[in-house]
Specification:
With about 1900 residues, this protein is an alpha+beta fold. Helix content is about 25%, strand content about 30%.
């Protein structure tokens, strides 16, 4: 390759600098690689020449970077060379470099020069340490190309957003940090609470220096160069390599504030191995106040507490800035953190920087922009001589290349971010050239204040035109004009541009963008959301999809082509986010731009676009977010047309500002070009009245012709036809064209159309309706209508657009969740003006009925007028008039008719003249008269329903005969009717009676006006949507006369109801005189007006009302229903018994009357009050007037009440449950007085007589105890369970409001059942019998109850309450009351308890009494002994007595002989052996661990399970001591078919070598255990010592149990040869056994003599007698712990360890284990205390046993984490122990972890080979039992492939499959075994096993098949 000019590296380096410092070349080269290189290899004498402009632009060289993600200046790192070209060039250069013959041929102006540098540095790759290598030519620079995940960088925060941080990085790069990566997850919740949601801004600030780590780089799929660098500043990643040992004093560390304490801050370093603390009161005065949880702080390590793992920091800023990292020995590269300051020395100078060495082992580079001077000149290399000492900070590290970047920037070295003194877009005319970098650019000095700012101008930004010799044009010291294009926050370096075009453009940065600007932009990206466009300056903007065109775009990519330049208009610019529009109308609009509310002046015309279309108008958006509203009247719509039919969202419209209020951001718009100008002659004012004729009726409006010039027509919405919503709907359906409205009110004008209303409330108030806010005055009531309802209130409109707002709290009197349920749009309302703001035009209203109620009858008046109009409209459609009948039925007149039908609701009347008209009479209006069908009646007309042709009539005498009082009078009825009305005046208050309750109004009669008929509305304007008050016929009301009958009121008398509180006494003087004549004792004639359950409502005299209480009907209150014979309207003679004034303000009098015969016959005066003279037990009668949860309230007289308690109402639980249903209001109740309270005039009654109860033999209580006198022994009462008591206490049952009784557990049920409390629950009603009542001197009563009501004295149901009733051997039952280690206590009855010794709990041994006999267990036993004086009872649960049992046992022993083969079941497993219950007997034998198959002794619990059937051989029988020794070794059963052992290396085992620990396997499956047949409590206590030691000491995991010798028997010898050493060992063990037995016997004798130690002295005596017995020591410790003497118990353990002989290793181990349990329970902290004891135990005991003991304790106390950690240590320590690995397998299976295979692999590597079979077999068995059987099969199959002749393996494999009980699988396995070629003995064993299986599972056919196969095999093997 021929290269001309300078070295190829020059161009590459320069190109990198150009790409890095400036913007990408806009003129890339499109030549091939060789031509491109030749172009840049010019002679050295000539300066670098800018390449020529290419015809086409490469897309790869023009990366598009979004403005929000990256700065305007470029990052660098890109090359115009493709990857293939770079590789080609590199390969060629390397080839020539290696041969050493790189020669550059000269041209005329060139000379030859050898290539001595690699191109790796020039292409942007990073390099690390160069120790022993050639020094690179260029310094490391960070570019997008060499940034990789895991790189650590130093940066400065440039933006803090809600969800992320923007960090400025070295080289001008920018990175993003998500919120989740900016904080530690452990502190996130606390930070949220402290920061109230704004987390990031509370802990980070702009300009803060942070260390980051690169997580990943995202690349844009569409364009190259769109990269995002995702960072993390979590200390967990930055400090991942930090440990406490790697920290040294003087280091600077970053940490999070974990919590704020009183004296400082707890710190979190991101790692869990150590924490930190920083004291308050640093020199930085304000730093403490700013610190919150999660704040990132830096501090110097002052001290390290390695014990507590706490690092103390100092946050003094001066110390942090000056602290230098020390030269630590062996510091790793991972401990280098960006921002760390180091002492460095200059190693060499490079082309663009210097190389430094630091911390002895590391080297790094400093590029030219991070030198010590911010403005280095061209001679900067002279300042950095070799070995010069400098302070530098780490800028970045790359672990993959071990590259390190450093900085000498003085600001960064002082731990401060460089100042930012210039802004992007600033122009400086006198910038000075500080340095000229040949081929790269210029370094300028910008004259900013207070200090100059360096700026770098890339060579491509020097000029718009090409400058050939720009190095000569720009010399150092010259002054140039520069514009700042960007700023690198970390370097404090600005990037500039000198191009002339940069000063001329309208938009250079975001700050230059103004709303409404028209700009040209280039389309970069087109997507479904819109388009991203870029201005000429590089600023990007978004054109939303809806703004890409006037019309909706389906395929935006066809509308916008990427790369096209289009014209846009700026819509807005907010937070650097620019939006533009390409809508043609907006872009080309010449109208003014509306971008501020202050610019919205009246009459301004502009363009906008619709954002929302509503029925009442359109919302229009303008520039910069300004918005206005155009109401419907200003839209130019036709009458009745829909807004959405003319306008749509995003439509561009031209609109005019009609008004604006900038203070509240409100603009009113109009789509009409000009305002409608009309002549004054034809102008209609708002609020004026017009008439109109209906032209057409549409669904949404009624169009009327108003006949006014200048206006098209009028429009009435359906809601504006009437005030009543129901009538408005009916009227709309009846309206037809041609109907004329006489009066219509003009509400508004819309597009030359009048908006009208026919509401009477508005039409009648037309003159006073306001059209402007100034016409309103506070607290005035103004009619209006609701125009809108929202969640927070209602809008009420008046004339025009004048609108007020009623907040929700002022809309209704009560609280209502939804206002739309109380009001509807268009409803007429009366509004009370609350506040008026003239400036803002805001009007606040109240719609509460209490403030806006009507003062006239206009609402009901309009109702009747409209009803008449609707009837006429309905009648006008028919050919003949249907309303002629109305004249014949004037209201108030008497008409004659015939009874047509009688219904439940009333009577139907027909009329002869009108067949289609009917009358109706309610039962209330019948007046008590009997009516028959067909009879003729005369009735008064009450009301007319003209549309329904229905007449409401009345037969009441006072209404029918009101005009016939003077028979001689000739005055016409019509004249008499008018005279009745003349007695009434408008606004007069009258008392009226409700005659008929209609849907919308009441028909009333006024008795004082000759029963004139009036009509009152049930609703008002504001209450149409609310529920009206309920009225009943005959009810008295107060009303005011509002209008007398005339044509305007439809000939009706209109009334307005008033509340009772507003009633006014309107009686005349004459009526007052009559009222005063009535007094108590007076007899009056009354009429029944209403019948209630407890009283009769009456009227008498002149408008007087009273009542007859239900107790005033009969003398004795014996009638069940006293009111059954009375009817409404019936007249009675009653006597006034009481009168009193009402407590209310109206001072009405309450009259009490009586119709008792005794009262009516008594002529004397009747007292108002009644005497309270009642005696206990007296019978009273009354009626229920109230029922609550627990009481029935009864009225005995008018003012005397009685109460009946729920539990006194019955004894039947079913009736008590239905308590409230049994007693209804008015029910008659007869009871007997239990107690009386004169001051309250209250009685308490029972339903049963007290005398009857006393007749059963009970005695009456004293007077002071009358409340509980009904509760006595033998009484049957009702009760309610209030509490279930724990244990055997039973339950508490409430039997009285004040008293409760207790039911013992034995009194809950008639028979003895298990858990009798399960049938009861709290709140349940029960029937109780009182057993005993014990009243104390304080008045309290203790009541014993029983629920055993139905007991008949059966023997099985007897409860013995006296000890005299018991006798020995009596069979009794009871419930377990308490359980102890000595036995348990049972309760026989509520008065007797009995004791059961632990030896008498069962015929078998009970290891855990608390589990087998829990509290409340039902047991059956026999009385053993009685002590009547002390009332001690001893019971036994054994089936036979002691003597009999001994004989039975002896008989059982006689049936057994040494050498017998017996079968049995495993009862319990212990560490020293198995306890086996022998079949067909009650005897239990012990199989010592030495008599088990040797391969099954490691883990008994895994190999033997409780109740598993086993076969054993009797080795020894000790009848005197009741012990049997058993053996389970395979050699004991069948020597011919036993497992055949083999030598190492062979496939078989020696048949006789069954003791081999290496190869022998067990045949029995499941290991578990218990101790022997114990018949005495002493033996039970001794057994507890042997099996479960005190303080939860369990040695089931130790290899040799301390009780091995106790259960040791003399097994039959297995081997024929016995060695002398074995005999010595046996003799020694025998002596030890005898000594131990003597100790046990002594203990037994003491216990039998009841010499149980109870004090410390007793224990001291025992210790002196048996100092080596761990049992006594542990009992002593347990005794001290029971006294809460923890320290003494701990000292006792220490004393025991010192006292017990060193030879007694097992006894000492027992104490150590107890010591573990003690510290685990009471240590402080427990973990550390246990570890300390454990370490001590390891020094004196077998380490393996100690480890197993501690592991068992951890597992027993569920400390799984500690157990796992200990087990891992054991695996490492005892890796050759098969038992340890099996324990690991056991834990993995127990925790359901899928790690068995990995553990097996590890174990097989560690274990000796001779233990592999044992381990694999045990693992396989464990898999079958607790894991996955398939994995167990795989293990067995693997071993059998290697050892196919091992019958022991086949046997165990078969046993496991048999246990799973899959017959097909089992038979298949047996078939495989019988096909083996083994010796005859082994095959006999297999056939025998197969035959036993078929006998238990198969049939005869299968059995014969096995036998046949065995015969075949025998025949086959015969010679």
């Amino acid at each position: 390759m021929h290269l001309q000019g300078r070295n190829i590296m020059c161009y590459l380096v320069n190109f990198i600098y150009v790409q890095d410092m400036g913007k990408p070349f806009k003129k890339p080269f499109n030549k091939n690689s060789e031509d491109r290189l030749k172009t840049f290899q010019k002679p050295s004498k000539k300066p670098f020449k800018t390449p020529q402009k290419s015809k086409s632009v490469s897309k790869d060289s023009l990366p598009i970077q979004h403005e929000d993600d990256f700065p305007d200046f470029p990052r660098g790192g890109q090359s115009s060379l493709s990857r293939e070209e770079v590789d080609k060039v590199r390969a060629e250069v390397y080839k020539e470099f290696e041969t050493g013959n790189v020669v550059l041929k000269k041209t005329k102006k060139d000379r030859k020069k050898s290539v001595t540098r690699s191109t790796e540095d020039d292409l942007g790759s990073l390099f690390g340490d160069v120790n022993g290598q050639k020094v690179p030519r260029f310094a490391n620079k960070i570019t997008l190309k060499n940034v990789t995940p895991g790189m650590k960088l130093w940066g400065v925060i440039s933006e803090v957003n809600d969800k992320d941080l923007v960090v400025s990085l070295p080289g001008g790069l920018r990175g993003l940090v998500r919120a989740s990566e900016a904080t530690d997850p452990l502190l996130h919740d606390e930070m949220k609470e402290d920061a109230e949601g704004d987390v990031l801004s509370s802990v980070y600030k702009v300009g803060q220096l942070v260390s980051c780590i690169v997580l990943k780089l995202d690349g844009d799929k569409n364009e190259k160069g769109m990269h995002r660098i995702w960072l993390s500043i979590r200390l967990a990643l930055l400090h991942s390599s930090f440990t406490l040992d790697s920290l040294q004093e003087g280091m600077v560390l970053s940490a999070y504030v974990k919590s704020v304490e009183d004296h400082g801050y707890m710190l979190h370093f991101g790692v869990t191995s150590f924490t930190g603390f920083m004291q308050k009161g640093s020199k930085d005065g304000n730093s403490d106040a700013k610190m919150v949880v999660g704040s990132l702080v830096q501090g110097v390590v002052n001290s390290i507490d390695r014990t507590r793992k706490v690092v103390n920091l100092s946050s003094n800023p001066d110390e942090v800035a000056k602290c230098v990292t020390k030269d630590l020995k062996g510091i790793s590269f991972d401990l280098l953190v960006p921002g760390m300051m180091v002492n460095a020395s200059v190693r060499s100078t490079l082309e663009n920087g210097i190389m430094l060495s630091f911390l002895s082992f590391f080297s790094g580079t400093v590029d030219i922009f991070h030198l010590g001077k911010t403005l280095p000149d061209s001679k900067w290399k002279d300042e950095y001589t070799v070995n010069k000492k400098v302070n530098a900070r780490i800028l970045f590290t790359d672990s993959s290349t071990r590259a390190v970047g450093l900085t000498l920037n003085p600001h960064l070295v002082n731990n401060n971010a460089p100042p930012s003194l210039v802004k992007t877009g600033d122009i400086f005319d006198d910038a000075k050239v500080a340095r000229v970098d040949r081929g790269s650019g210029l370094l300028l000095e910008i004259p900013s204040t207070p200090i100059p700012t360096p700026a770098y101008v890339n060579v491509s930004d020097l000029s718009d035109k090409e400058i050939k010799k720009w190095e000569k044009t720009f010399k150092e010291g010259s002054v140039v004009r520069v514009r700042v294009s960007g700023f690198r926050l970390l370097e404090g370096l600005a990037t500039g541009v000198l191009k002339t075009s940069a000063f001329e453009g309208s938009v250079f940065t975001h700050s230059d963008v103004r709303p409404g600007m028209v700009v040209k932009a280039k389309v970069l990206i087109v997507d479904s959301f819109g388009a991203i466009v870029q201005f000429a300056s590089g600023v990007k903007a978004l054109c939303p999809l809806r703004h890409m065109s006037e019309l909706e775009i389906v395929k935006p990519r066809k509308k916008f082509q990427v790369g096209a330049e289009l014209v846009f208009r700026v819509l807005g610019c907010k937070s650097k986010r620019i939006t533009v529009t390409h809508k043609k109308t907006l872009v080309k609009s010449k109208l003014a731009v509306l971008s501020s509310y202050n610019d919205a002046t009246e009459g301004l015309s502009t363009h906008g676009w619709i954002t929302k279309v509503e029925p009442h108008g359109c919302f229009v958006r303008f520039y910069n977010g300004v918005q206005g509203f155009a109401r419907r009247a200003e839209l130019g719509l036709d009458p009745g047309s829909d807004v959405s039919s003319m306008y749509h969202v995003e439509q561009v419209v031209k609109c005019r500002v009609t008004s604006s209020v900038p203070a509240i951001k409100r603009i009113n718009l109009s789509f009409l070009a000009t305002t409608a100008r009309k002549s004054e002659d034809y102008e209609v004012k708002l609020g004026s009245l017009v008439s109109g004729t209906v032209e057409r009726v549409t669904p949404n409006a009624i169009i009327v012709d108003v006949g006014v010039k200048g206006y098209n027509m009028g429009m009435i919405t359906p809601e504006h036809l009437a005030d009543n919503h129901e009538l408005a709907s009916i009227l709309k359906s009846e309206l037809k064209p041609g109907y004329k409205f006489e009066k219509l009110l003009v509400l508004d004008v819309e597009n030359h159309n009048l908006i009208l209303t026919a509401k009477y409330s508005l039409v009648n108030a037309a003159q006073s309706l306001p059209a402007d806010a100034s016409q309103l005055s506070p607290h005035s009531v103004v009619p209006g209508y609701i125009c809108n309802i929202i969640d927070t209130g209602c809008f009420v409109r008046f004339i025009g657009r004048l609108t007020g707002f009623a907040p929700k709290n002022r809309a209704v009197d009560g609280q209502r969740a939804d206002l739309s349920e109380a009001f509807y749009v268009g409803q007429s309302v009366r509004s009370n003006i609350q506040e008026v703001n003239i400036e803002t035009g805001r009007i606040t209203l109240s719609l509460k009925q209490s403030m806006c109620s009507s003062t006239d009858a206009s609402f009901i008046q309009e109702y009747f007028i409209l009803e008449e109009k609707i009837a006429k409209l309905n009648d006008s459609g028919s050919k003949s008039s249907n309303l002629k009948w109305v004249k014949e039925f004037p209201i108030g007149n008497v008409v004659e008719g015939t009874v047509h039908e009688v219904k439940e609701s009333g009577v139907i009347i027909s009329f002869k003249k009108f067949n289609d008209v009917f009358g109706f009479i309610t039962h209330h209006q019948c007046g008590g008269s009997t009516i028959d069908i067909g009879s003729t009646v005369k009735a008064t007309v009450l009301d007319l329903a003209k549309m329904d042709c229905l007449v409401d009539l009345s037969l009441k005498a006072e209404l029918v005969n009101r005009y016939s009082e003077d028979p001689d009078s000739r005055t016409p009825k019509k004249m008499r009717k008018r005279s009745a009305h003349k007695d009434l005046d408008v606004n007069q208050t009258v008392n009226a009676v409700v005659e008929i309750v209609k849907e919308n109004y009441l028909v009333l009669s006024i008795p004082d006006a000759k029963y004139a008929l009036g009509y009152a509305s049930l609703y008002d304007y504001n209450t149409q949507g609310l529920q009206s008050k309920q009225f009943v016929n005959g009810q008295r009301v107060i009303a005011s006369v509002m209008a007398l009958p005339d044509s305007s009121t439809a000939d009706r008398l209109l009334l307005l109801l008033k509340s009772n509180s507003e009633a006014v006494d309107t009686s005349s003087a004459k009526r007052a005189k009559k009222k005063s004549s009535y007094d108590v004792g007076s007899s009056v004639q009354t009429e029944i007006t209403e019948i209630k359950p407890l009283e009769l409502k009456l009227k008498f005299g002149s408008g007087l009302h009273g009542r007859i209480h239900i107790t005033e009907v009969s003398d004795d209150n014996i009638l069940e229903n006293p009111f059954s014979n009375y009817k409404i309207g019936q007249t009675l003679t009653a006597k006034i018994v009481s009168k009193s004034k009402s407590e209310k303000k109206n001072n009405n009098i309450h009259w009490e009357l009586s119709i008792k015969p005794s009262v009516l016959a008594d002529q004397s005066d009747v007292c108002a009050s009644q005497d309270f003279s009642y005696s206990i037990g007296e019978n009273v009668n009354g009626f229920v007037y109230k029922v609550d949860k627990d009481w029935v309230w009864i009225t005995v007289t008018r003012d005397i009440r009685a109460q009946l308690y729920i539990l006194d109402s019955s004894t039947d639980p079913v009736e008590l449950q239905d308590f409230q249903k049994r007693f209804h209001i008015g029910k008659h109740v007869s009871g007997y007085i239990l107690s009386s309270y004169m001051d309250k005039r209250l009685l308490r009654v029972l339903l049963h007589p007290l005398g009857g109860l006393l007749a059963n033999g009970a005695s009456m209580a004293d007077d002071s105890e009358t409340v509980t006198s009904h509760i006595f022994q033998g009484a049957i009462v009702g009760g309610r369970i209030s509490k279930i008591l724990p244990g055997v206490s039973g339950a508490i049952v409430q039997i009285d409001p004040r008293f409760s009784g207790k039911v013992h557990i034995t009194e809950l049920t008639d028979s003895w059942i298990t858990d009798p409390l399960s049938a009861y629950h709290e709140g349940q009603f029960v029937k109780c019998k009182v057993l005993d009542v014990d009243r104390s001197g304080t008045g309290a009563a203790h009541v014993d109850l029983s629920l055993r009501i139905g007991t008949n004295g059966k023997s099985g149901n007897i409860r013995y309450e006296k000890i005299e009733d018991l006798k020995p051997d009596l069979v009794i039952q009871g419930y377990v009351k308490n359980i102890t280690s000595k036995g348990c206590f049972i309760t026989l009855s509520r008065k007797l308890d009995a004791k059961i010794l632990i030896s008498n709990l069962s015929d078998d041994f009970v290891s855990k009494p608390e589990e087998e006999f829990p509290i409340r267990t039902l047991v059956t036993g026999r009385v053993v002994s009685l002590e009547p004086l002390s009332k001690r009872i001893e019971v036994s649960l054994r089936k036979t007595s002691g003597s009999k049992e001994s004989k039975a046992d002896g008989g059982d022993f006689n049936s057994l002989h040494v050498g017998d083969i017996v079968s049995g079941r495993v009862k319990r497993t212990e560490s020293y052996g198995l306890f086996i219950t022998i079949d067909q007997s009650k005897l239990v034998g012990l199989c010592h661990v030495s008599q088990l198959p040797e391969d099954s002794t490691d883990n008994l619990e895994m190999n033997y399970k409780t109740h598993e059937r086993v076969k054993a051989k009797i080795l020894k029988i000790d009848e005197e001591r009741g012990r049997i020794s058993l053996g389970l070794k395979p050699s004991y059963f069948d020597t011919n078919t036993d497992v055949t052992p083999a030598n190492h290396g062979s496939d078989s085992l020696n048949e006789n070598n069954s003791d081999s620990d290496d190869e022998t396997l067990i045949e029995s499956e499941e290991p578990v255990a218990l101790f022997g047949n114990v018949s005495h409590p002493v033996l039970a206590d001794v057994e507890s010592r042997a099996s479960v030691l005190p303080l939860d000491v369990q040695l089931d995991e130790t290899e040799d149990s301390p009780m091995d010798d106790v259960g040791e028997q003399n097994p039959e010898p297995v081997d024929n040869v016995t060695k002398t050493s074995d005999n010595k060992v046996r003799r020694t063990k025998k002596k030890e056994l005898e000594e131990r037995e003597r100790e046990i016997r002594a203990a037994e004798e003491r216990l039998m003599q009841k010499d149980v130690p109870r004090t410390a002295d007793d224990y001291e005596k025992l210790i002196r007698s048996s100092p080596n017995s761990s049992f006594i020591w542990l009992k002593y410790m347990a005794f001290l712990l029971s006294l809460n003497e923890v320290d003494k118990a701990r000292s006792m353990a220490e004393r025991a360890l010192r006292t017990i002989n060193i030879r007694e290793e097992s006894e000492k181990l027992n104490v150590w284990i107890a010591y573990f349990n003690l510290e685990n329970e009471f240590g402080n902290p427990p973990e550390d205390a246990v570890v300390k004891v454990f370490q001590r135990a390891l020094q004196v005991c077998d380490p393996k046993k100690v480890h197993f003991a501690l592991l068992s304790m951890y597992e027993r106390t569920d400390q799984h984490k500690l157990a796992d950690e200990l087990l891992e240590k054991m695996i490492r320590k005892f890796k050759h122990s098969c038992k340890v690995w099996l324990r690991r397998i056991q834990r993995v299976l127990k925790q359901n972890e899928d790690m068995v295979q990995s553990v097996v692999k590890r174990a097989l590597i560690c274990l000796p080979k001779h233990k592999h079979i044992k381990f694999i077999t045990q693992t396989a068995i464990s898999e079958f039992k607790s894991g996955v059987p398939d994995r167990g099969r795989s293990l067995f199959e693997g071993m059998l492939r290697e050892y196919p002749k091992r019958t022991d393996l086949w046997s165990v494999y078969l046993d496991q499959e048999i246990r799973l009980d899959d017959e097909d699988v089992i038979r298949a396995l047996f078939e495989r075994t019988i096909c083996l070629e083994l010796p005859l003995k082994k095959m006999k064993f297999l056939f025998k096993k197969y035959l036993e299986f078929e006998k238990s599972k198969g049939d005869e056919e299968r059995i014969e098949y096995v036998k046949a196969e065995a015969l075949k095999y025998i025949e086959k093997t015969r010679p």
